[in-house]
Here is the input.
Amino acid sequence: MTSRRKFLKSLAAFPPVVSSLSWAPFASEAFAAGEKEVFNYGVLLPLTGGAAPFGLDQVKAHMWAVDEINAAGGANGRKLHPIVLDSQAKPDVGVAGATRLASVDKVPMFVTAFSAVVAAVAPVANRNKVLALSAGANSPRIAKLGDYVYTTYPLADVDVTLLAKYAYQKIGARRAAAIFVNDESGIYGAEVFRDAFKKLGGEVGAFESYEPTATDYTGAVLKIRAANPQVVHLHGNASDTPIALGQMRQLGITVPVTTNTAGYNPELIKKIGTAADGLIIATLAPGPKDSPRVEKYVERWQKEEKRIPNNMPNTQYVHDAAYVVKALVEECDKDGKALTGENLRAALLKVHTFNLPLTDTVTIREDHTVTKPVYLIGVKDAKFVEMGRFE
Amino acid sequence: MYDLTLYSQIVWTSLANSSYQVLFAVAFALVLKVLGIWNFTQPALMAISFYCMYAAIETFHMPPILAMSLALIVTVVFAYALERWAFATLRGRNSGPIAFFIFTIIVSQFVIYILTLIFTAEPRFLLGNMTWASHQMFGVFVTNWDLGAMSLTVALVFALYLFLTHTRYGQFMIAVADNAELAETYGISKSRCYLLTMVIAAFLINTSIFLLGSKIALYPELSLHMMLFAVAATIIGGIGHVFGAAFAAVAIVLIQQLSVLFVGSRWQPLLIFLILFVTIIFFPSGVRIRGAKS
Here is the structure.
């Protein structure tokens, strides 16, 4: 017993190690204090792999929210206890994690993100009647993944459609092109842009993809250039977006480039500098100028990590997912219902609208979609500049 | 539909981007020619070289050229050790090609696994700023990276050609490649030639990984993906024809990038397999230009 305590203490002394396994110390403390039983739930995000810089920041944000909630008395007296597992943002790893959460940890719900992972884990969630809450995936397919898969994060048809509108109406572009990473998120995102831009009356002259493992984008980029677009939509992942944009600029594409939230990444500015100028990023969460709580959140990042988080809007959603969990637990407790996946799902549909600290109000509809305002961020002189909020 | 400038741009940029592929392919083909081994430890050498540079720059704040030199030493030592204690041992046991194949694959997977544990699979940028100054020449954008990479590659390949054809040790290597036992009867040490070959391959790999790392972000498994290219170039260039592999590498990159103008870019990665199928079935000795020497 003593050695086990020593082990837990040593884990607690190394927060990154703890976060990559599970937030275990809560459990024993809560039981020791004779409080209500803790609420265990899963958090399935990339802790290693190409998306790790984003997943780790998301987990950090989530743990901050859990700490805040638990410090304020928890969810109706229950401490939240997230079991954090690594998805690597890969479908197969995600399925293994979700299966473990459902079968071994027997959690009634889990929070996850990344379109390919959410799509892959959906059958596990539906089969086991475990509520899967996506807090950072935008493939339109997510709305059709089954009864137990819901999202707090608006799907691509919200932000990407806004980008198409902005390109057509504000920039005045009539000829566009799209370049995207050949994966779930990239394909669907680019298709949404193409369809929305065409619907407005514009023309999409080139629609080109690149592989996630590509080392050379020349052909695709030049085909985009040959289409002579007035605007280009780039739908990549956080790791390839800087390279793709850099190659576009170096091969003479100087027109504005719209992109999804993957572009909101300090590394992008650091690595390609002023080549990022002219980038227009759609994000789905308010910035520091829009909300005092977000301002404080950014201050905390600056104070503790000396930087803003990678893909900040997504971290805000994953942060707020803890408050959704809290609300669902409280709703079930209020009705005297057991904390099962079925009851939590019913609570989600009953509560319907959640007032969240960093992403404002979110209304989850029965058709599994969410409507939110879109915030545009531009890049000027190698700096992110807030461009405003769009309904 | 497309103007001459666009074709010129694709050809230029593809030639520049083929530089690191040429060096990888030449390193692979050289080991195959002299040692007779399909050296699937090459991804391990690539990854070791990259992460040495990365750690030297990121952790110890070394200037890139110093980091590259340090990585060269480590990569050469690893390549030397592979030949001295692994390949030589397997050869001494008269192990067949399957044993070498399995061993080299295992070494690569092992090294990549270790590097993933240490550095994670997160893509890493080698340099602080990944953009390079560019100039426009006749409508074609030419970056300083393009010029540097192409010059370095041409210089290295030419130096290797001169080494193999005009130096004593180069000719020893060719002799060993042709018939190791016969070469030994003439007093040539085949084990020294094998070691030298591995050292030269490590040098080429180190240079090419620096070129690649100064352009894109790398992660451990990427070197495994890139291995297929070196294998394809070696087969297409003709097994045993080191410089044929170099030309094949350039040709594959050109075909892949130009193909985008005629087919959707999502088909681009499939082309390499198609070229391999055609070569293996119709050109088992590689695609050779009549009269060309390698």
User: Anything to note?
Assistant: Confidence is low (pLDDT under 50) at residues 1-33 of chain A.
